[in-house]
Amino acid sequence: MDSSTHLLAADGKIFGMTWDGFMTVIGWTGNGVFFSRFLVQWHATEKRKQVTIPALFWWLSLVGTLLLLCYAIHLDRGWVFIFAYAFSWIPYTRNLVIHYRHKNAEKTCAGCGERSSPKANYCPNCGEKLAVARP
Ligand SMILES: [Zn+2]
């Protein structure tokens, strides 16, 4: 038995904790990750001085929700919490897909290298005409 096997399975414990203790850590970690998204969004909004939702917000939402869903499934008769987290990963994942599609479709200015919205015709940084996006 190597040290990693010892950490995972010795005496039926996970990292030295009982299953309930381990799942409590998962639940609190999920709470911490889920809450931290508000700090990320608030910081991004204050930095840009306009309401902003960065991709990290959706990643934290997704990871926090999945951890909380694991914890809820662990609870005996935790159907209220299971239902609360069972479907919320769908819009988080969809927002990430849309975000990365938009990011990949951005135009790069040949003049200065600034990245612009796919719908932009001129670079907002230097005014150079941007190439027409290929479908
Ligand atoms: Zn430019």
Give the helices and strands as they follow along the chain: HHHHHEE
Helix count equals: 5
Shape, per Cα inertia axes: elongated
Q: What is the straight-line distance between the termini?
A: 56 Å
What is the number of strand segments? 2
Strand content: under 5%
Whole-number mean pLDDT: 90
**Residues in helices, as a percent range:** 55-70%
The main pleated sheet reads as: 2 strands, antiparallel
Radius of gyration: 22 Å
Report the structural category.
mainly alpha
Sheet with the most strands: spatial strand order? 1-2
- List the ligand species: zinc ion
Low-confidence stretches: 1-5
Care to describe what's here?
The protein is mainly α. It has a domain of 85 residues. It is 61% helix and 3% strand. The protein contains five helices and two strands, in the order αααααββ. It has a two-stranded antiparallel ribbon with strand order 1-2. α2 packs antiparallel against α3 and α3 runs antiparallel to α5. It starts with a helix and ends in a 19-residue tail after the last strand. The N terminus is likely disordered. The site of zinc ion (ZN) has 8 residues, from loops.
Layout of strands and helices, then pairs:
Elements: H1 3-9, H2 19-48, H3 55-74, H4 79-86, H5 89-105, E1 107-108, E2 115-116
Helix pairs in contact: 2-3, 3-4, 3-5
The protein binds zinc ion.
Short characterization:
The protein has 5 helices and 2 strands; from the N terminus they run αααααββ.
